[in-house]
Amino acid sequence: MVLAVVLQLTAFSGNPTEDEFAALEAGLSSPSATATPSAQPTNGPDIPAADTAAGKVFTGEMTLNGNALGVEIDGTKAPQAAAVLKALSDGGSYNGSACHRLTTGETFSLLQCGGASASADPDYTWGPLENTPADNTYPAGTIAVARSGDNAYGNGKQFFIVYKDTVIPADSAGGYTVVGKVTSGLETVTNIASAGITPGSNATDGAPAQPVTIDSFSLK
Fold first, then answer.
1. Looking at residue 166, which CATH number applies to its domain?
2. pTM of this prediction?
3. What is the DSSP secondary-structure string of the chain?
């Protein structure tokens, strides 16, 4: 449960410091922390309009290390998120990018993709949150959008794939936008997870021991 809270607080933007982890174990939110300011509720000119995906369901394929995953991206439930992933995949933004973060907790199991590191692109942020689970549960196969903490307009280019049922507590902004699901090939992610975390990382949260690259990502 502590690990789940840690991930919720770091909001997929980086691992906690030693002091932050100690504070969490002691039941504190963060040592001398200040609230993360929320971005203004507006999207920049590079963010595609939600109506380009509204009412549509896209299907396609994501290839990780030469292994294909069938995917479905749902613009009926998350039109803004679906529009972003469709535009980025159409433009080739994900091709050659890394899946830089892996968690291997029993109820906290995901692979985060779409960037070489946890650092977000400050020039590509958007909102609002859409289709967030009321019970904070993300079933195996879920594709959801990573974001900065406590910020409903802190979504970016990165996303995560859940390979075992996972619970992520909501923060002050809410949960994480569920934009789609893996329809086939989820065992590829499970196999990546079975190789473990790079030595020197947190035991259950860090860089995958087996480096992971998105070879291609296409939607139609």
1. 2.40.100.10
2. 0.84
3. -HHHHHHHHHTTS-PPPHHHHHHHHTT-S-TT--PPPPPPS---TTSPPGGGTTT-EEEEEEEETTEEEEEEEETTT-HHHHHHHHHHHHTTTTTT-B--EEEEETTEEEEEESSSSS---TTS-B----S--TT-EE-TTEEEEEE-TT-TT-EEEEEEEEEE-EE---BTTB---EEEEEEE-THHHHHHHHT-BPTTSBTTEESBSS--BEEEEEE-
